[in-house]
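Sharing in case it's useful to others searching the archive later.

Someone asked me privately for the predicted structure of SEC14 like lipid binding 1, so I'm posting the question and my answer publicly. Question first, with the sequence:
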Amino acid sequence: MVQKYQSPVRVYKHPFELIMAAYERRFPTCPLIPMFVDSDTVNEFKSEDGAIHVTERRCKLDIDAPRLLKKIAGVDYVYFIQKNSLNSRERTLHIEARNETFSNRVIINEHCCYSVHPENEDWTCFEQSASLDIKSFFGFESTVEKIAMKQYTSNIKKGKEIIEYYLRQLEEEGITFVPRWTPPSLAPSSEMSSSCKKPAAPLAVVVPDPALKEGLSSEPLSTPSGVPEPAVGTPDDKLDADYIKRYLGDLTPLQESCLIRLRQWLQETHKGKIPKDEHILRFLRARDFNIDKARETLCQSLTWRKQHQVDYILDTWQPPQVLQDYYAGGWHHHDKDGRPLYVLRLGQMDTKGLVRALGEEALLRYVLSINEEGLRRCEENTKVFGRPISSWTCLVDLEGLNMRHLWRPGVKALLRIIEVVEANYPETLGRLLILRAPRVFPVLWTLVSPFIDDNTRRKFLIYAGNDYQGPGGLLDYIDKEIIPDFLSGECMCEVPEGGLVPKSLYRTAEELENEDLKLWTETIYQSASVFKGAPHEILVQIVDASSVITWDFDVCKGDIVFNIYHSKRSPQPPKKDSLGAHSITSPGGNNAQLIDRIWQLGRDYSLVESPLICREGESVQGSHVTRWPGFYILQWKFHSMPACAATSLPRVDDVLASLQVSSHKCKVMYYTEVIGSEDFRGSMTSLESSHSGFSQLSAATTSSSQSYSSSMVSRWRFC
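And my answer, the predicted structure tokens:
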């Protein structure tokens, strides 16, 4: 497996030429990098005007590896070829490095770049990326990979320190300015090439003693032009190292790389608003910075948020009055670490009454709004306290908890809420303080703990009786001034006291369903599973000629082929147990086939659009203008299926074994609508980037499909 690394943008508040003077002092060897033994210049080129300077070096490294491994490999040192391309006119330095030793077994490539900050020409940006691919290494591939990654990350940490060390060295020698390159016709008579070598008096600007004492760790010197310094930015929307430390926390180089690579992938593939960096980082932390796992869960969550419009819940949804009166929970200041503090008096809450009065869906939606509010408060506290705050603390008071709280539908609702929150709000709970746990608590804990992630469970602190008042109790985490009054504190807590919900507010199951409270059905989209050999098909009946069939679908998993067929006769309705009869279920979406196995393409039905291959993560919008009435079938088919021919389509019976393989399953989320031709133009104005040419008539269609057809489609990557 190829290991990749991508650094954040590191900003030096010094001009490019001064950074280059410091960089050149690293050669031929650098005492700050013990493994860097020596380097020899093997090739060098300079342009006539002196703007281009290319240097190729052979670097000798003493890798910190077990002596036995070195003996087996038969080497004491490894050699790298480093090519530096300095363009003084453009003020850039590109560094390319590759391994010479064991190049047939191990492939290491690195690229670094120094360039001018896009918002301040007197600042310098640095980026680097690298890849490691171990083909074979005497059976020690895993060991070599670990050693290589350890050595590389160690040197990354030292990179900025080394440049700053040589900058201080230059300052001690009185050099704080190196002039820019100028064309020979405009250059002064003195030699310019010495500017990046040992300092010469004409090129040095000696600063006064007070400035010397400040050192380079202070704010940068004023620019000659007197232009105010902009805040440290992220060029081309890239992450800045200082920004990461200020708003996201201290991350290791590999953790920074995972964040940057996942963020770049989302920018390239995700249609719509890119999740905030804090949100991406939470999913990475929840999966121990495994990019593939984090990407999968994050994409599922983004699809869920889009489907149920969770991003707008705080602006568009008003909690029912019953929740405002009887839900005994609310936000209450912050803990000692600056985390927002949420107080829940679960023991005083009538969970049965709330479920009977509102239903499970309303409670779930309310919890989602609490989590969205928590994310907002974390952002605010990050600004207020000047340090990264990405989670909140929850204080749960269990005084009053009894068997009534173990009512089965209430526990079921609680488990579902936990499941949804765990999947979509990972690493948001910083600490959970459970106070005054009664004897019945172990029963509840036994029921819910299996559904809670191990990392989350480690954040639980449980106190029985008044133990929270002793050493290691509440005062260790919350300031005395904000401990709620119901816990013998001094702060008045505005959290509702809860109490029994009046039975007059109870609703029947039919009433709750009619109230349209179901979160999962409050969307115009439908989900479907597509299996290898079992496509998903829907029927659209057209009565009026020149109607327009429109579609909008997201490919959530796998690659699919989208087809549109026409038939003069109606297909038989799909059997509800088409998969269930074979003891195969379709979790996360339905699956239906309409085209009968005895139908033949070209005789019983025809293809009216060229097949469209849609990759995982794409979002597709399109339309088909019909000429003939009849029955149209929209089909999503597994991509590896062969093209439709004049034979029957493979059915479920033919591929039962393959259905059990997860790689043979795709998921789509779709919406279709039929629009009258007179309304078509107005509706199409809402489609983004539509362009004609999505489909053409198939050459093998029958007369019924040789109708006039025009289609428009727009497609993009969403995640």
